[in-house]
C-alpha cells in the first residue's frame, strides 16, 4: 500500500510497537494522516521523522515520555495542520522554544502532560486556531502573549497550570476569541475589563480558582456575547454589576466563593437563557423578595435549572410564590437531555460547562451539566418560617438542600410529588410534625437527611426509606422506627407538645401539704361533729329519764 494516504487505527485494542528499521512506516512513505491514539506507545516512532508531508497526527492517550522533539516543528513546518499529543507524559519541549514556526497549524493539543517552562506559541498563517495547553506545569507566558497568538484564535485553554501575575492585556487584541479558560492557576490583580467589554465574540470566560481581586468590571456594553462566566473561588469584592443584564445570552453565572456583597440580584431574571446561578459562600444579605411581593412574575428565572445560594447571610421567609415561576424545574422530562456547552467549530469538539455544588452530602464537580439536572441549594443561611409548599411543584428537581437554617412548621406533603428527587437535606432546622407518608412516593431518592429537627412519630416504612440509616433521622427525640432501633409505642406517637410534662419534687411536696391540710381539717371537723352529736344525744336521754321519774 505504497500510495496509502490515511491510516487511523485509534481507540481499539491494538498496540503499536516501534521496530528497528522503521517498520511499518518505511513501507507507506506517502502517509499524511495518522491516528494512533490509545495504542500503548511509549515513544514517538522513529520512522515518523522520515514522513515528509504529515498533515494530521494523533498520538494522544499513550504513555510517551521524555522530551518532545523539535523535528516535529521543523520537518512538518509547511504541512502539519492538526497535532494532538495530549494525555501523555512529555516533560518538556526540545530547546524550550517560546515560539514554534508553522504555516498551516490550526489545532494544537498538548494538554495533560508534564510540560513546564514558557507556554509555546505557534506562528501560523491559518485562521480559527485552537490551542489547548491545559493540565501541565507551565509557569510563564510571554508579556505580549496575545500579540503573538495566531490570527483569529478561537479557543485558548491554559487551565490547570502554574501561571501567575496579571493576565496580559494583549490577549484582548484577539477579537475572534470565543472560548478562554484560565482557571486553576495563580493569576492575580483585577479581572481585565476588556474580557467582558472589548472582545466582541467571547462567549465563554472561565477564571475560577485564581487570586483575582478588586471589583468586577462595570459598564458592560449591550454587545456582550458572553454565555458562560465562571469567576468562582477568587478574592473578588463588591456587588454584581447590574450592567451584566446586557449579556442577554448568558446561560451560566458562577461567582461563588468570593466576597460578593449586597442583596439577592433579582434583576438577573431579565436574562431569558440563564440556566445556572451560583452565588454560594459569599456575603449576600437580606431577604429574598419578588419584585411584586408574593405575586408571581412572568418569566421570573423561567430557564433556571441550578440555583445555589448556600453559605450566605440571607434571612426571613421565602416568598410563597417565588418557586412558582421556575418553569424549567417543572418540566417532567424523561430523556437524557442536552449537555450545556459551546461549539467553537467542528474540529474542536464540544466545550462543556462545569459546576461544583453540594449533592448527596458532598461537594461534587459536574464536568458535564445535563439540561435535565435540576438542583436547589439554600443551605447554611438564616431563612425562617415554613418550608414553601410550592417547591412540590418542581417535579423534575434532582437535588434539594435547605439544611442549617431556621425553618419551622411541618414538611409539606406536596414534596411527595418530587418524583425525580435523588437527594434531600432538611437537617439542622426547627421542623416539627410527622414525616409525611407521601414521601414514600420518592422512589428515586438515594440520599436523605432529616437529622436534628423536632420531628416525631413513626418513620415511614417501605420503598427508599428502608435503605436509609439512622444518621438520616438522628437528633429527633420524638421519632421511632426500625431505622433508629426504637420501638414505636403509643407514647412515641404523641406530639411532644401533647405529652404532660414531668412534675417536679417541689410540686409534689406542695400537693402533699395540701392533702394533709385537708385531711387534718376534715379529721378535726369529724371529731367535733361526733362529740357534739353524742353530747346532744346524752342530754336528750337525761331529760327523758327525769320526766319518767
Automatic annotation (TrEMBL):
Chief subcellular location: membrane
SMART domains in the record: LRR_TYP (SM00369)
Organism: Hordeum vulgare subsp. vulgare (Domesticated barley)
Protein localization: Cell membrane; Endomembrane system; Membrane
Protein's name in the database: Uncharacterized protein
Family the entry assigns: Belongs to the RLP family.
GO cellular component, one term: plasma membrane
Source organism superkingdom: Eukaryota
Segment forming the signal sequence: none
Membrane topology: Single-pass membrane protein; Single-pass type I membrane protein
Organism placement in taxonomy: Eukaryota, Viridiplantae, Streptophyta, Embryophyta, Tracheophyta
Record-linked InterPro entries: Leu-rich_rpt, Leu-rich_rpt_typical-subtyp, LRR_dom_sf
Keywords, alphabetical: Cell membrane, Glycoprotein, Leucine-rich repeat, Membrane, Receptor, Repeat, Transmembrane, Transmembrane helix
Amino acid at each position: 500500500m505504497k500510495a496509502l494516504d490515511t491510516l487511523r487505527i485509534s481507540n481499539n485494542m491494538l498496540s503499536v510497537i516501534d521496530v528497528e528499521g522503521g517498520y511499518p512506516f518505511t513501507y507507506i512513505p506517502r502517509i499524511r494522516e495518522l491516528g494512533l491514539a490509545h495504542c500503548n506507545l511509549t515513544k514517538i516512532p522513529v520512522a515518523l521523522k522520515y514522513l515528509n508531508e504529515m498533515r494530521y497526527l494523533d498520538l494522544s492517550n499513550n504513555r510517551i515520555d521524555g522530551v518532545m522533539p523539535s523535528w516535529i516543528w521543523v520537518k512538518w513546518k509547511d504541512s502539519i495542520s492538526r497535532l494532538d499529543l495530549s494525555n501523555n507524559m512529555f516533560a518538556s519541549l526540545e530547546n524550550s522554544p517560546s515560539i514554534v514556526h508553522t504555516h498551516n497549524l490550526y489545532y494544537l493539543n498538548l494538554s495533560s502532560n508534564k510540560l513546564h517552562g514558557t507556554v509555546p506559541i505557534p506562528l501560523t498563517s491559518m485562521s480559527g486556531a485552537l490551542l489547548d495547553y491545559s493540565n501541565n506545569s507551565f509557569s510563564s507566558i510571554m508579556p505580549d502573549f496575545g500579540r503573538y497568538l495566531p490570527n483569529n484564535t478561537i479557543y485558548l485553554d491554559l487551565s490547570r497550570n502554574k501561571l501567575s501575575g496579571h493576565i496580559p492585556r494583549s490577549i484582548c487584541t484577539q477579537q475572534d476569541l470565543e472560548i478562554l479558560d484560565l482557571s486553576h492557576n495563580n493569576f492575580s490583580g483585577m479581572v481585565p475589563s476588556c474580557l467582558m467589554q472589548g472582545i466582541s465574540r467571547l462567549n465563554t470566560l472561565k477564571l475560577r480558582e485564581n487570586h483575582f481581586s478588586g471589583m468586577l468590571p462595570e459598564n458592560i456594553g449591550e454587545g456582550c456575547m458572553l454565555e458562560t462566566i465562571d469567576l468562582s473561588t477568587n478574592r473578588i469584592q463588591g456587588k454584581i454589576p447590574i450592567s451584566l443584564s446586557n449579556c442577554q445570552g448568558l446561560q451560566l453565572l458562577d461567582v461563588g466563593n468570593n466576597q460578593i456583597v449586597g442583596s439577592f440580584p433579582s434583576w438577573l431574571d431579565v436574562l431569558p437563557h440563564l440556566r445556572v446561578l451560583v452565588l454560594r459562600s459569599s456575603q449576600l444579605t437580606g431577604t429574598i423578595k419578588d419584585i411584586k411581593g408574593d405575586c408571581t412574575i412572568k418569566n421570573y428565572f423561567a430557564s433556571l435549572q441550578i440555583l445555589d445560594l448556600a453559605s450566605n447571610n440571607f434571612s426571613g421567609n421565602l416568598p410563597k410564590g417565588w418557586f412558582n415561576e421556575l418553569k424549567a424545574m417543572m418540566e417532567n422530562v424523561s430523556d437524557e437531555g442536552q449537555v450545556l456547552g459551546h461549539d467553537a467549530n467542528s474540529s474542536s469538539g464540544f466545550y462543556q460547562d462545569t459546576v461544583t455544588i453540594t449533592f448527596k452530602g458532598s461537594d461534587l464537580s459536574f464536568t458535564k451539566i445535563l439540561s435535565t439536572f435540576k438542583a436547589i441549594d439554600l443551605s447554611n443561611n438564616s431563612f425562617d418560617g415554613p418550608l414553601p409548599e410550592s417547591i412540590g411543584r418542581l417535579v423534575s428537581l434532582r437535588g434539594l438542600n435547605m439544611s442549617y437554617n431556621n425553618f419551622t412548621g411541618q414538611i409539606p406533603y406536596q414534596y411527595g410529588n418530587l418524583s425525580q428527587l435523588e437527594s434531600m437535606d432538611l437537617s439542622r432546622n426547627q421542623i416539627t410534625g410527622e414525616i409525611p407518608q407521601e414521601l414514600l412516593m420518592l422512589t428515586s431518592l438515594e440520599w436523605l437527611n432529616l437529622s436534628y429537627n423536632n420531628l416525631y412519630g413513626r418513620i415511614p416504612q417501605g420503598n427508599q426509606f428502608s435503605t436509609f440509616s439512622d444518621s438520616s433521622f438522628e437528633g429527633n427525640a420524638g421519632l421511632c422506627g426500625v431505622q433508629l432501633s426504637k420501638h414505636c409505642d403509643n407514647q412515641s406517637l404523641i406530639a411532644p407538645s401533647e405529652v404532660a410534662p414531668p412534675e417536679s419534687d417541689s410540686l409534689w411536696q406542695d400537693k402533699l401539704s395540701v392533702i394533709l391540710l385537708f385531711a387534718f381539717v376534715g379529721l378535726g371537723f369529724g371529731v367535733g361533729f361526733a362529740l357534739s352529736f353524742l353530747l346532744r344525744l346524752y342530754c336528750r336521754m337525761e331529760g327523758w329519764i327525769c320526766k319518767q321519774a
